[in-house]
Amino acid sequence: MEENNDNFSSHLYVDKIQEMREKISSVISGQEKVSDLILTAILADGHILIEGVPGVAKTLTARLVSKLISADFSRMQFTSDLMPSDVLGTNVFNMSTNTFDFHKGPAFGDIVLVDEINRAPAKTQSALFEVMEERQTTIDGQCYSMGDVYTIIATQNPIEQEGTYRLPEAQLDRFLFKINMGYPNLEDEIKVLQAHDKTKKFTKLNEIEPIISKSELLELREKSHRIFIDEKMIRYIAQIIQETRCNKSIYLGASPRASIALMETSKAYALIQGRLFVIPDDIKFLAYSVLCHRIILTAEAEMEGITIENVVGNIIEKVEVPK
Predict the structure, then answer these.
(1) Are the C-beta atoms of 144 and 136 separated by less than 8 Å?
(2) Which of 13, 113, 197, 310 has the highest CB neighbour count under 10 A?
(3) What's 17-77+110-117+124-214's CATH class?
């Protein structure tokens, strides 16, 4: 703990994290939980899947977060006719040199927005498998590495399923979080209307200045990894994951990747909250976003109308909180 205490305020950029949270809240009302989850995932070096109906600012949120970090941003709009080469890039013959030159696709960037990820066929979705897990891709036998802060933020619409291709469980598991972005409440929607009425337009993202640099983000990730987590908290995480594997309503439980994700994101979330250590509330708050896309309910549970959120909530209530 002494190492973590050294110059905590100055070295961990706590003020900058708070500034990022406030900037997101000023542009997008009522989504403080979503913004905290996105910042947590970025600090924990993981990818994010945002699910929500059209018009709740999924894409705007992803673009806004990318603007707050001084990093290269790229966007891909997934469609049914998109090919893997459209995502990763392709080798093009150069007649002047009589060789092939590699032209990078939009997957090469620091923060990559993948809009409507479930609209592309499986062949194109699978093009992201290697880059999501290993931060590299292999094309024609040549390996190309991604940047140090490489993060994919994908969106999908849970309602409109015509012409979509469901993401396989193996790819869902590669997302650190699945964040459900719902409707704003009455007061927040009034704020949205007032802001739009006042400016007659939504915030211009190109007017937003970066708050944190890539080097600062990498340092934050390093400090996040060193946040203290007690053995009791580690056991608490393991018990929650174990419960997903023996719950009668669950057909497929969470893997060890989920337990690692829950531990690392708990550290990152503690850092965002300005703490040097993980508490049970961090784990309970993050469990839904870590687990809900990683477990599959039994057919009987689905027929009874039981939701994954209900099951995860019951598991959290069942497992004893460490003292």
Answers:
(1) yes
(2) 113
(3) alpha beta
User: Whole-angstrom Cα distance, residue 251 to residue 85?
Assistant: 36
- Full-model pTM: 0.89
Question: What tokens appear for 244 in the block?
Answer: 């997903």
Question: Residue 94 has what pLDDT?
Answer: 87
List, in sequence order, every residue forming a beta bridge with 238; answer none if it has no partner: none
Domain definitions of the chain by residue range: 17-77+110-117+124-214, 227-323
Round the CA-based radius of gyration of the chain to a whole number and report it.
Answer: 21
- Residue 83 exposed, middle or buried by CB count within 10 Å (0-12, 13-18, 19+): middle
User: What's the chain's length in residues?
Assistant: 323
Q: Residue 243 in contact with residue 100, Cβ under 8 Å?
A: no
Three-class DSSP category at 226: coil
Q: What are 144-174's pLDDT values in tens digits?
A: 999 889 999 999 988 877 768 888 888 899 9
Q: Which residue has the tokens 């809240």?
A: 25
Nearest Cα neighbor of 50 from 35, 29, 70, 30 is 35
The CATH number of domain 227-323 is 3.40.50.300: no
Return d(Cα 21, Cα 17) in angstroms, integer.
6
Q: Which stretches of 89-140 are DSSP H helices?
A: 122-125, 129-134
Which residues in the chain show pLDDT less than 50? 1-5, 7, 9-12
In angstroms, the Cα distances linking 140 to 88, 89, 134 are 12, 11, 17
